[in-house]
Amino acid sequence: MNIHEYQAKQLFEKFGVAVPKGVAVSSVGEFDAAIAQLNTAGGIMVKSQIHAGGRGKGTFTNGFKGGVKFSPTKEKAVENAQAMLGNTLVTAQTGDAGRKVQTIYFTEAANLGKRPDGRDDEYYLAILLDRATSNPVIVASTEGGMEIEHVAHANPEKIFKVHVDPAVGLQAFQARQIAFSLGFTGELFKQCVTLVTKLYQFYWDKDCAMVEVNPLLVTAEGKLLALDAKVSFDDNALFRHPDVVALRDLNEEDAKEIEASKFGLSYIALDGNIACLVNGAGLAMSTMDIIQHFGGSPANFLDVGGGATKDQVTAAFKIILGDPNVKGILVNIFGGIMDCNVIATGIVEAVKETGLQLPLVVRLEGNNVEAGKATLAASGLTIVSGDTMADAAQKIVKLVNNK
Amino acid sequence: MSILVHEKTRILVQGITGDFGARHARLSIDYGSQVVAGVTPGKGGQTFEHNGVKVPIFNTVAEAAKQTGATVSAIFVPPPFAADAILECVEADLDLAVAITEGIPVRDMIRAKRAMLGKRTRLIGPNCPGLVTPGRGDKSHGGCRIGIAPGYIHKRGKVGVVSRSGTLTYEAVWQLTSKGHGQSTCVGIGGDPVNGTSHLDVIKLFNEDPETEAIIMIGEIGGNAEVEAARWIKANCKKPVAGFIAGATAPAGRRMGHAGAVIGGAEDTAEAKIKIFRECGISVAETPSDMADALLRVWRG
Fold it and tell me: Where in the sequence of chain A do the CATH 3.40.50.261 domains occur?
């Protein structure tokens, strides 16, 4: 689960991680009161709150450029915020559709410190799982404010990693290692040790999947601040964090994915035209792959899980058919334990209930498969049967492409 | 032989009184597997009965192992309690803990895996279909089925199968069986980012197993476990290997059901993994329908 920047920073503050002072609001009427709470002498940052990166370089569909704006005066801040709120921001990460900005975050603009070479004094800090060691890893870099992937590619020697032993947690010497590796001394060194320690505590206590601070900034006054914050949580651990669940913003999630999750379905929309309905995540992914292999284009990932009841199949068909791009459906079920005939009956009922007009290819394999195929054949519906995944994929691609 | 488990392996089931655990305990008994104990805290002394087989239930894993000689546990405990169930197996010194449970918090698994360091218990999973060593009876009856895989699709034979995914494993097994080729052992290592046993761990066991003559390795996008295994295979494996990677069409950054199946960097895409498979001499299945045939291109059976 992802949260907004302003929510992440509120959590940071609770854990003692320094951030610029800010106020988040969701209506124009609140702008003045919000700004009044800030020290605006150094200007105000106006920040669109969406669950996607690249906001600063994004463009609104109304033509306004920049989802994050420095505003020297209160008046300019209000003007910028008005141009953003309620409008749709397109960034490199949102796709062409963009995201509607429903919350604006005003923060005090930090007075950027400078390095001897004139660059802003910005760093990178992240905590996440290292899959290779199954331990948390803290990643730090002196090259903040840019894509860390680029740094890793161009200057791998400027990325520092510290692995945390989960049996004892982050040790003080490890926090010092990070601070030394970033070149801090004196007061900033102490601030960095504290910030890393608190940030790790937040990551661990709140079951975060990832915490990223980019940039971590040194101000001209010599203060270390988390200027941006990206936080995602482990979905499997949300049951023990009701306070985190309360931060969920359904506006940022795909309505069809939310609908699917209500029925125990895992659905992700893609931009192709052949929908698929599959049991099992690995099989579902490879069903998408085989559609593409034979010249088609998958419209979605859809895993009905191990059960695949009639209600689930019907719900899945409705979700699939809610996508106007879909021109055909491929059902691929390996009914290892479940009875293929039960699934076939569910498919027939779902087709009737939804009045499906599109080509449908069904590949059933496994337990009681002959009865299942007989049920499909006897239904009087035009359901094409596929014997193998390859056969089924070729049939649906042909049916869709020849239309 | 086979790897990890065989026909006589004595199995205990943690969570045998829950719907999910009970259902699959019954299916394992029907398959002819030696389900000798159940564990549900607070229900010790009760009995789980199915088709004339009486399985005693114990309060603790240690007690169940001591009383029945069980060496392997199938874990069907709900996610909030599953890491605890795994560590109880470790404390009881079992050979193998097979965690079927889906949805265990990553932090719990990080801690559990750390606590297992240096212990003799091996963990398979979590979020996995388990493992099957097929039997020699009709439809492979009499084998050792631990977890949720359909037993009847198997056939005893010479191919080792290792995969993260359940249904994709069944797909490969069924292709092999339909073509007359049996399996030594089929292992589902699970789709989570932190798991107990890796592709490479299983490949090493297959390489040492005299009964296993050839291997199918099924992977996914995300992480570098398949790449690690492929490089080891190139340097050390004496047996022909076929491979498949799912997720060529998956968009970056999206989680496709399996928590592990997310593309992060350039090295963990399907394309990159397939390229490394080829470089390492692994016969690549072009599509999931091609998994058995990919093996048969490099192995006569």
Answer: 255-401
DSSP state of A71: E
What Cα–Cα distance (Å) separates residue A336 from each residue in A366, A386, B29, B171?
Answer: 5, 17, 17, 9
Question: Domains plus CATH for chain B?
Answer: 10-124 (3.40.50.720), 153-296 (3.40.50.261)
Residues of chain A within CATH 3.30.470.20 domain(s) are 122-245
- C-alpha triplet A192, A195, A201: angle, nearest 5°: 140
Residue of higher predicted confidence among A131 and B230: B230
Region of poorest pLDDT, from A33-47, A163-177, A300-314, B142-156: A300-314
**Where residue A149 falls among pLDDT bands split at 50, 70, 90?**
confident
Q: Is B258 in contact with A281 (Cβ distance < 8 A)?
A: yes
Tens of pLDDT, residues A86-122: 999 999 888 888 999 999 999 999 999 999 999 999 9
Measure the CA–CA gap between B251 and A268, rounded to whole angstroms.
10
What distance in Å separates the CA atoms of residue A122 and residue A22, rounded to the nearest whole number? Answer: 20
DSSP conformation class of B31: H
Q: Which CATH architecture has domain A20-108?
A: 2-Layer Sandwich (3.30)
Is B288 in CB contact (< 8 Å) with chain A?
Answer: yes
A337 contacts B148? CB cut-off 8 A = yes
> What is the topology classification, in CATH, of domain A122-245?
D-amino Acid Aminotransferase; Chain A, domain 1 (3.30.470)
User: Using CA atoms, how far apart are residues A267 and A276, in angstroms rounded to an integer?
Assistant: 10
Strands A328-335 and A300-303, by their bridges, are: unpaired
Q: How many CB atoms lie within 10 A of CB A14?
A: 12
Q: Which long-range contacts (CB under 8 A, 24 or more apart) does A253-256 make?
A: A256/A319, A256/A322, A256/A323
Grade residue A170 by pLDDT with cuts at 50, 70 and 90: very high
Question: A255-401 adopts what CATH topology?
Answer: Rossmann fold (3.40.50)
**pTM attached to this predicted model:** 0.93
Q: In angstroms, rounded to a whole number, what is the distance separating the alpha carbons of residues A401 and A273?
A: 10
Chains A and B: how many Cβ contacts under 8 Å? 163
ipTM: 0.92
Residue A159's Cβ-count burial label (10 Å; 0-12, 13-18, 19+) is: middle
- Report the C-alpha gap between B8 and A398 in whole angstroms: 50
Which of B105, B170, B191 is nearest residue A207 as measured by Cβ atoms? B105
A95: phi > 0 → left, psi -120 to 50 → alpha, else beta; which?
Answer: left
Whether residue B125 has pLDDT greater than 90: yes
C-alpha A343/C-alpha A361 separation (Å) is: 14
Query: Is residue A296 within 8 Å of A393, Cβ to Cβ?
Result: yes
B153 touches chain A (CB under 8 A): yes
